[in-house]
Task: structure prediction
Amino acid sequence: MVNMIKRSFLALLCCLCTSAAMGQILDDSTKLVYGPNTLTFYKLDDQKDNINSTGILDTTLTGLGDFTMWDQMGKQAQDLGANGTAIRSMFYQSPDVIGLRSGYDAYDPFVIQQSDVRFFDTKSPFLDLYVAFGGVGRSVVDFDFSRNIKPNINFGFGIDRLTTDKQIGPVSSEGDRNAVATNLDINYFYRSEDKKYLAMFYAYRFLNTVNETGGVNLGENDEETEIFAYEDAAIRLRNVEGTDTRTRLHLYHEYKLGEALQLYHEVDHSRQKLAYNDELDAAIVSGTFNQYADVYPNFFLDSAATAESHSFRSLSNEVGIKGDIEKGFYRAYLRRRDVLGVFRYLSDQRVGEIYAGGVLRYDLNEKNAIGGKVEFLQTGDFNFLGKVDNNFFEASYNIMQYQPSLLQQRYFGNHYFWDNDFQSVLKNEIKGSVKLDVKGISVRPNVSLTTLSNYVFFNSEALPEQANENILLNGYGVELGFRKYTSKSKGEFFGLNAEAKYTLIGGGDADSFQAPELFVLGKVFWEGYLFNNSLQTQVGADLMYRSAYFAYDYAPATQQFFLQDQQQVADYFLADLFINFKVEKVRIFFKFNHFNQRNNEGFQITPLYPVQQRVLDLGIHWFFFD
Result:
């Protein structure tokens, strides 16, 4: 492992030096025509709502080494201690749809979302390459290519791959994977020469394979420190494979009759297929000591093997009108959505849904706007959102009634069975934040007050249950940004970015939801230039504190996190060190994760799953424009 890091370091150092030399040649002899400033991109949702904004490439150094999903979610998440494993936000998040959904969402953050798709306008072929070499067998490779076929036509594709070796339990050999995830995607953008017709299309295929470990197998007489033995720890499951395969085809197109009236059509086809296979050790299952008891509570079908599969498909068609009237915008639509759930041991379930909705927005200027949206489903479920944003504050109110997931309603497998008829969940939420900016200091106090009625959760037996009384989630927080320039002309400064969240859970069914009471995240750093201003540098530390709480347990067979009250994960302070460099279009990072971890210590991110151990990561992010 050390030799691999040394070789990678030398390779990256050579790349850095080569890039610096090339940049010097271009500066002295050739004018660089193409670069980040000659390229823009669009987002589909912005185009749909007539938001006239174009994105530009992020060439900053902040967050360069955050290649794990846990880091990308601001460490405000709970996974199984390894990148690519099941993950959930520690705080409440409502679903994207008010209708029926699959409920298998443990790998949603790894799937390309519509907001992630960039439709480029390039003046030259463009390639975006990100490669991360993580310690203890962790890596990420993201490759995206885009080019304009004509000034009004663009085509792009991407290949993203994540691999993670087992972080706990004996590793049979290098490449003994815990998780492998691959995203393949294409996108196409077309605008007619008269700018009246616009089409945006994207498609992807996602495959995630996880070899489940079940967590550390901690015996009755074992100390808690055994959890932090990592590769020397005993694990509860072996030779267990779970897969999540998803495909999506999406087309949006519109025709402009005038500023006040445009017609649009949007079609989406999505499929999710899941499989779980475990060749059980029959001797252990039938013996006096059942090692699987804490993982599999029942064996309904077979004590020798578990083989389960499910799939979920949806096809939606939406038609609508929209337009701009002076400073206002409107959009109204109808949508038909057909859903099919296919089970291995249950009959298929087909549902047809009809939606109607609208969006209104009034932009007083670039920094002052008021708007809202409403959506109704023929079942009586609905979603209403109103918000205001100005120079002084942001505020929103959201009332949403949404259906429980298909998984929460019906399931039959080797280890679990249920058949429920739950009511829809009702969410009432008020959010607000105040914008305070004084002499280089940005302060954003914020509050979130959420009430959940008929909330559906997975109880301590890993079975879905509906709360009988309300749950109150009150969140109070503050975000802080600070810069102190040591040389403003040279762009050298000390920086601090921080946020803190304090969460109170109340109501008659307060025990039906768990979250840490206090969570603090911070970044302290210095940024400036070295070697005659040729090497932009950022060096600092990422800091996190999370208070103790009863973190959710995890059921591999159903991919669900569920409540438990037997083991409280301790409060913990974590620190990562990093140093980032930039020369021309090349950025390089070195990151020392969890550098404050002591031997045989750490914290459990999920009961019996230790957080990532102390390890060194390095990587490169390189833009090519020709």
Remarks:
- The first strand starts at residue 40 and ends at 42.
- The radius of gyration is 26 Å.
